[in-house]
Design goal:
The complex is a heterodimer of chains A (114) and B (115). Chain A has 114 residues and is an all-beta fold. Chain A contains no helices and 11 strands. Chain B has 115 residues and is an all-beta fold. Classes of the chains: A mainly beta (114), B mainly beta (115).
Protein backbone atom coordinates (compact mmCIF):
# COMPACT_ATOMS: atom_id res chain seq x y z
CA UNK A 1 0.00 0.00 0.00
CA UNK A 2 1.10 3.53 -0.63
CA UNK A 3 0.53 6.69 1.34
CA UNK A 4 1.72 10.28 1.48
CA UNK A 5 2.15 12.52 4.51
CA UNK A 6 2.54 16.26 4.18
CA UNK A 7 3.75 17.96 7.33
CA UNK A 8 1.96 21.23 7.96
CA UNK A 9 -1.41 22.04 6.48
CA UNK A 10 -0.47 25.70 6.36
CA UNK A 11 2.95 27.29 5.83
CA UNK A 12 3.59 31.02 5.83
CA UNK A 13 6.83 32.62 4.65
CA UNK A 14 7.97 36.13 3.86
CA UNK A 15 8.49 37.21 0.30
CA UNK A 16 12.06 36.39 -0.66
CA UNK A 17 12.44 33.72 2.00
CA UNK A 18 13.11 30.03 1.47
CA UNK A 19 10.09 27.83 0.83
CA UNK A 20 10.22 24.30 2.23
CA UNK A 21 7.20 22.03 2.01
CA UNK A 22 7.68 18.60 3.50
CA UNK A 23 6.48 15.31 2.07
CA UNK A 24 7.12 11.76 3.21
CA UNK A 25 5.81 8.73 1.43
CA UNK A 26 5.29 5.08 2.04
CA UNK A 27 5.55 2.62 -0.82
CA UNK A 28 6.23 -1.09 -1.11
CA UNK A 29 7.48 -0.68 -4.66
CA UNK A 30 9.62 1.99 -6.33
CA UNK A 31 7.43 5.01 -6.62
CA UNK A 32 6.81 7.82 -8.98
CA UNK A 33 6.55 11.04 -7.01
CA UNK A 34 4.84 14.26 -7.95
CA UNK A 35 4.16 17.73 -6.67
CA UNK A 36 0.99 19.39 -7.91
CA UNK A 37 -0.08 22.98 -7.27
CA UNK A 38 -3.55 24.44 -7.18
CA UNK A 39 -3.82 28.19 -7.57
CA UNK A 40 -7.04 29.87 -6.46
CA UNK A 41 -9.97 28.98 -8.70
CA UNK A 42 -7.84 26.77 -10.92
CA UNK A 43 -7.27 23.08 -11.42
CA UNK A 44 -4.29 20.99 -10.35
CA UNK A 45 -1.11 21.69 -12.25
CA UNK A 46 2.00 19.55 -12.24
CA UNK A 47 5.00 21.31 -10.69
CA UNK A 48 7.52 18.51 -11.05
CA UNK A 49 7.90 14.77 -10.98
CA UNK A 50 10.45 12.11 -10.10
CA UNK A 51 10.48 8.89 -12.06
CA UNK A 52 14.01 7.52 -12.31
CA UNK A 53 17.51 8.91 -12.62
CA UNK A 54 18.63 12.15 -11.01
CA UNK A 55 17.21 12.51 -7.53
CA UNK A 56 17.14 16.31 -7.65
CA UNK A 57 14.26 17.32 -9.85
CA UNK A 58 13.65 20.82 -11.13
CA UNK A 59 10.18 22.02 -11.92
CA UNK A 60 8.37 25.11 -13.06
CA UNK A 61 8.50 28.52 -11.38
CA UNK A 62 11.85 27.85 -9.70
CA UNK A 63 10.71 24.93 -7.57
CA UNK A 64 12.74 21.79 -7.05
CA UNK A 65 12.45 18.61 -5.01
CA UNK A 66 14.90 15.93 -3.94
CA UNK A 67 14.04 12.26 -3.75
CA UNK A 68 15.72 10.73 -0.72
CA UNK A 69 15.05 7.02 -0.64
CA UNK A 70 16.72 6.48 2.73
CA UNK A 71 14.44 9.07 4.30
CA UNK A 72 11.41 8.26 2.13
CA UNK A 73 11.08 11.97 1.53
CA UNK A 74 10.37 14.24 -1.41
CA UNK A 75 10.47 17.76 0.03
CA UNK A 76 9.69 20.73 -2.19
CA UNK A 77 11.86 23.84 -2.04
CA UNK A 78 12.23 27.23 -3.64
CA UNK A 79 15.10 29.55 -2.68
CA UNK A 80 13.12 32.78 -2.78
CA UNK A 81 9.35 33.01 -2.38
CA UNK A 82 7.28 35.25 -4.59
CA UNK A 83 3.79 36.54 -3.90
CA UNK A 84 2.53 34.55 -6.89
CA UNK A 85 3.56 31.30 -5.17
CA UNK A 86 0.60 31.54 -2.81
CA UNK A 87 -1.38 28.39 -3.53
CA UNK A 88 -2.08 24.90 -2.23
CA UNK A 89 0.54 22.26 -2.89
CA UNK A 90 -0.03 18.52 -3.05
CA UNK A 91 2.54 15.77 -2.87
CA UNK A 92 1.50 12.56 -4.63
CA UNK A 93 2.76 9.04 -5.33
CA UNK A 94 1.93 6.32 -7.80
CA UNK A 95 3.50 2.88 -8.29
CA UNK A 96 6.41 2.60 -10.67
CA UNK A 97 5.61 1.72 -14.26
CA UNK A 98 1.92 1.72 -13.69
CA UNK A 99 -0.93 3.88 -14.83
CA UNK A 100 -2.79 3.22 -11.65
CA UNK A 101 -4.27 5.71 -9.29
CA UNK A 102 -2.32 8.59 -7.80
CA UNK A 103 -2.35 8.84 -4.02
CA UNK A 104 -2.35 12.40 -2.73
CA UNK A 105 -1.25 13.97 0.49
CA UNK A 106 -3.63 16.24 2.35
CA UNK A 107 -2.12 19.39 0.89
CA UNK A 108 -0.19 22.35 2.25
CA UNK A 109 -1.50 25.85 1.82
CA UNK A 110 1.38 28.28 1.25
CA UNK A 111 0.91 31.92 2.20
CA UNK A 112 3.41 34.63 1.33
CA UNK A 113 3.82 37.64 3.61
CA UNK A 114 4.82 40.93 1.94
CA UNK B 1 -4.23 21.52 -27.43
CA UNK B 2 -7.26 21.56 -25.14
CA UNK B 3 -6.78 20.33 -21.61
CA UNK B 4 -9.12 18.29 -19.47
CA UNK B 5 -12.49 19.99 -19.37
CA UNK B 6 -15.13 19.56 -16.73
CA UNK B 7 -18.75 20.68 -16.69
CA UNK B 8 -20.29 22.33 -14.81
CA UNK B 9 -17.77 24.31 -12.82
CA UNK B 10 -20.24 24.73 -9.97
CA UNK B 11 -23.46 22.98 -9.03
CA UNK B 12 -25.78 23.59 -6.11
CA UNK B 13 -28.51 21.01 -5.61
CA UNK B 14 -30.88 19.96 -2.90
CA UNK B 15 -30.51 16.77 -0.95
CA UNK B 16 -32.22 13.95 -2.79
CA UNK B 17 -31.76 15.43 -6.25
CA UNK B 18 -29.64 14.01 -9.02
CA UNK B 19 -26.53 15.62 -10.49
CA UNK B 20 -24.42 14.57 -13.45
CA UNK B 21 -20.85 15.75 -13.83
CA UNK B 22 -19.06 15.53 -17.13
CA UNK B 23 -15.40 15.21 -18.00
CA UNK B 24 -13.79 15.56 -21.41
CA UNK B 25 -10.24 14.19 -21.29
CA UNK B 26 -7.34 15.23 -23.47
CA UNK B 27 -7.73 13.72 -26.92
CA UNK B 28 -5.92 10.40 -27.17
CA UNK B 29 -5.74 9.79 -23.43
CA UNK B 30 -7.16 6.39 -22.69
CA UNK B 31 -6.73 6.66 -18.92
CA UNK B 32 -9.42 8.68 -17.19
CA UNK B 33 -9.66 9.16 -13.45
CA UNK B 34 -12.19 10.70 -11.08
CA UNK B 35 -11.11 12.15 -7.76
CA UNK B 36 -12.93 13.99 -5.00
CA UNK B 37 -11.88 16.44 -2.34
CA UNK B 38 -14.29 16.86 0.53
CA UNK B 39 -14.15 19.78 2.99
CA UNK B 40 -10.45 20.58 2.56
CA UNK B 41 -9.33 17.02 3.19
CA UNK B 42 -7.07 15.01 0.93
CA UNK B 43 -7.89 14.40 -2.70
CA UNK B 44 -9.28 10.89 -2.83
CA UNK B 45 -9.38 8.52 -5.78
CA UNK B 46 -12.81 7.41 -6.95
CA UNK B 47 -12.25 5.33 -10.07
CA UNK B 48 -10.13 4.71 -13.14
CA UNK B 49 -11.21 4.00 -16.70
CA UNK B 50 -9.02 2.58 -19.42
CA UNK B 51 -10.93 3.48 -22.53
CA UNK B 52 -14.51 2.48 -21.74
CA UNK B 53 -13.63 -0.17 -19.15
CA UNK B 54 -13.55 0.39 -15.41
CA UNK B 55 -10.05 -0.60 -14.36
CA UNK B 56 -10.42 0.23 -10.68
CA UNK B 57 -13.52 1.51 -8.92
CA UNK B 58 -12.37 0.81 -5.39
CA UNK B 59 -12.77 4.43 -4.35
CA UNK B 60 -16.44 4.81 -5.21
CA UNK B 61 -18.12 5.58 -1.89
CA UNK B 62 -21.43 3.79 -2.45
CA UNK B 63 -23.98 2.77 -5.06
CA UNK B 64 -25.39 6.29 -5.30
CA UNK B 65 -22.43 7.06 -7.53
CA UNK B 66 -22.40 5.83 -11.13
CA UNK B 67 -19.62 6.55 -13.59
CA UNK B 68 -19.74 5.84 -17.29
CA UNK B 69 -17.45 6.31 -20.23
CA UNK B 70 -19.36 5.19 -23.28
CA UNK B 71 -17.20 4.99 -26.38
CA UNK B 72 -14.07 5.63 -24.38
CA UNK B 73 -14.17 9.39 -24.82
CA UNK B 74 -15.90 11.64 -22.31
CA UNK B 75 -17.07 10.40 -18.94
CA UNK B 76 -19.98 11.20 -16.68
CA UNK B 77 -20.32 10.81 -12.94
CA UNK B 78 -23.88 10.71 -11.66
CA UNK B 79 -24.85 11.09 -8.04
CA UNK B 80 -28.38 9.89 -7.31
CA UNK B 81 -29.77 10.74 -4.85
CA UNK B 82 -27.33 13.32 -3.57
CA UNK B 83 -26.61 13.57 0.15
CA UNK B 84 -25.08 16.42 2.15
CA UNK B 85 -21.78 14.56 2.56
CA UNK B 86 -21.35 14.43 -1.21
CA UNK B 87 -20.45 18.11 -1.24
CA UNK B 88 -16.93 18.77 -2.40
CA UNK B 89 -14.81 19.32 -5.46
CA UNK B 90 -14.78 16.56 -8.05
CA UNK B 91 -11.70 16.39 -10.23
CA UNK B 92 -11.20 14.51 -13.43
CA UNK B 93 -7.80 13.62 -14.84
CA UNK B 94 -6.48 11.88 -17.90
CA UNK B 95 -3.20 10.36 -19.00
CA UNK B 96 -1.72 8.31 -21.79
CA UNK B 97 -1.56 4.56 -21.61
CA UNK B 98 1.81 2.92 -22.04
CA UNK B 99 4.00 5.95 -21.39
CA UNK B 100 6.29 5.26 -18.45
CA UNK B 101 6.38 8.08 -15.95
CA UNK B 102 3.60 10.05 -17.53
CA UNK B 103 1.68 12.33 -15.27
CA UNK B 104 -2.05 12.80 -15.09
CA UNK B 105 -3.49 16.08 -16.33
CA UNK B 106 -6.28 17.48 -14.22
CA UNK B 107 -9.34 19.52 -15.00
CA UNK B 108 -10.41 22.54 -13.00
CA UNK B 109 -12.91 20.51 -11.04
CA UNK B 110 -16.62 20.72 -10.38
CA UNK B 111 -17.59 22.20 -7.04
CA UNK B 112 -20.70 20.39 -5.86
CA UNK B 113 -22.74 21.77 -3.00
CA UNK B 114 -25.63 19.75 -1.64
CA UNK B 115 -28.01 21.74 0.56
Amino acid sequence: AQSVTQLGSHVSVSEGALVLLRCNYSSSVPPYLFWYVQYPNQGLQLLLKYTTGATLVKGINGFEAEFKKSETSFHLTKPSAHMSDAAEYFCAVTPYSSASKIIFGSGTRLSIRP
Amino acid sequence: EAGVTQFPSHSVIEKGQTVTLRCDPISGHDNLYWYRRVMGKEIKFLLHFVKESKQDESGMPNNRFLAERTGGTYSTLKVQPAELEDSGVYFCASSQVGVVGTEAFFGQGTRLTVV
